[in-house]
Design a protein that fits this description.
By secondary structure, the chain is of the alpha+beta class. It has six helices and four strands; from the N terminus they run E-E-H-H-H-E-E-H-H-H.
């Protein structure tokens, strides 16, 4: 099954993780990390789209993972082939689009948010 946490918000932007990618594509996490490390993208692209992070495994140990933007995700999974990989890519694209749509529904400022809650002059 497709991971429920495949796409999440971090600092107001949709991201995924190397763990979620490994889970979704039924690949070893070490292989996904290697695929990310082996990318021949520019340093600028790497800095903008991949962030090293950690997670706590079942044994309570901190382990490396990578947070990926949508563009970073595209770069990594571009080489994943086969009918099943295509179906998973479509689900991921739908999740990124769903998250983006939810973000666009949010008020663009604190004032707009407060106005929506309390009326135009109710929060003075």
């Amino acid at each position: 099954p497709f991971p429920t946490n495949a796409v999440m918000l971090k600092d107001g932007k949709p991201i995924t993780t190397s763990l979620a990618v490994a889970d979704a594509f039924d690949r070893a996490h070490a292989n996904v990390l290697r695929a990310i490390r082996d990318l021949k993208c520019s340093k600028e692209f790497r800095l903008c789209n991949f962030a090293e992070s950690n997670y706590i495994n079942e044994q309570g140990r901190s382990q490396p993972m990578v947070e990926l933007t949508e563009d970073g995700w595209v770069m990594v999974v571009m080489g994943f082939t086969g009918a099943e990989a295509i179906a998973i890519k479509e689900r991921y694209i739908a999740e990124f689009n769903r998250m983006r749509a939810k973000l666009q529904e949010l008020p663009s400022s604190l004032e707009e948010f407060l106005s929506s809650l309390f009326g135009k002059h109710g929060f003075q």
